[in-house]
Amino acid sequence: MMGSEGALVAAVLGDCVGGEFEGAEEVPLDSVLKHLDSLDEEAKGSGILEYSDDTAMARCVVQSLLTRAGFDEQDMARRFAKEYSASPGRGYGSGVIQVLKKLSSPQLRDVYQPARDQFNGRGSFGNGGAMRASPFALAFPDLSDVKRFARLGAMLTHSCSLGYNGAILQAMAVHLSLHGALELPQQFISRLISEMEEVEDDELTRMDADKPFCERLHRVRDLMGRNKVSIEEVISELGNGIAALHSVPTAIFCVLHCLQPRDCLPVSYGGLERTLAYCLALGGDTDTIACMAGAIAGAHYGIEGVPQAWIRCCEGAEDAVMSAERLYMLYHRPQHMN
Ligand code: F2R
Ligand code: MG
Ligand code: MG
């Protein structure tokens, strides 16, 4: 349960603190540390960091899973559309907006169709499915259900295999982390590779690329084995962009790299603070990479690893504690597990 709370809360924090640098090409570490230092002041009442589309959509996933006590694509799609129309200024991707508008039509028969129509029928490869995948990892006790529902949940907006397979990878990483897998980092990455070998052994995926996530995860493993890795090398090997392929493996690497103290980061930082700071220093899609890494790291360190001051100054962080508790209670009751 502590891991579930840590995962949902740290995902919100990653989104809120990462928003400051989203889209920046270069982010000096000094600016990151200054930004994170200022959270203590904001917690005293001088301001609140707003969440973006990452958290807005994850909250819809949580509410749908809680209300329907299972995966219900109609309900989830309706919630995405309603949330977008109530708060369109949360920084959504320019393509997904078309899907969200179509999902609000009462005439719509197949809720997966708008996503299939994206990008001339190719579907989106963006990380919007992955950024909201963590609640599936918290809810479903079996890994096979986590994979199945993370995929279906992502396909409501992302029908390209590069989009929904990124969501599966993210949800699996959170799920394994919740079950203590980060205690053995080498086994963790090997398990993700073997699971993705199976996920990507599929005709639709092969039409897009040859096991692209497996190939990236091998790069993560290579980087883990190196003594020194520069920010530039991480960006050139793994990416820091808006595509799921260029951000989900990167988030996983950030978590693994920051399991130990790093010379460039303050010794006063715990593992979660190190992870989020490191994600921000990469630049690019910082809110989303920090949101995804936050979920994986938060599952490992638990809610006790999350600084209280950061929770107080991020919109939606306190709600996330309660949502995680409710998801845990609902989905881990004996009758739900049978
Ligand atoms: N969109 C942003 N940030 C930039 C703009 C912020 C906003 N304008 C502001 O200033 O407030 N952040 C959020 O978007 C990412 C998630 O995006 P998602 O949900 O995947 O959206 P979409 O539109 O489906 O895909 C994103 C872009 O990727 C390119 N793309 C995707 N599939 C493509 C394909 N098959 N062919 C060509 N291009 C494709 C397009 O450029 C899409 O617009 C997160 O970072 C979230 O924080
Ligand atoms: Mg965002
Ligand atoms: Mg983003």
From TrEMBL:
InterPro entries: ADP-ribosylglycohydrolase (IPR050792), Ribosyl_crysJ1 (IPR005502), Ribosyl_crysJ1_sf (IPR036705). The keyword Magnesium applies. It comes from the Eukaryota. It holds the Pfam family ADP_ribosyl_GH. GO terms for molecular function: metal ion binding; poly(ADP-ribose) glycohydrolase activity. It catalyses: alpha-NAD(+) + H2O = ADP-D-ribose + nicotinamide + H(+). Mg(2+) binds at S52, D53, D54, D285, D287, T288. Gene3D superfamilies: ADP-ribosylation/Crystallin J1 (1.10.4080.10). The keyword RNA-binding does not apply. GO terms for cellular component: chromosome; mitochondrial matrix; nucleus. Keywords: Hydrolase, Magnesium, Metal-binding. Its cofactor is Mg(2+). This is ADP-ribosylhydrolase ARH3. The gene is adprs.
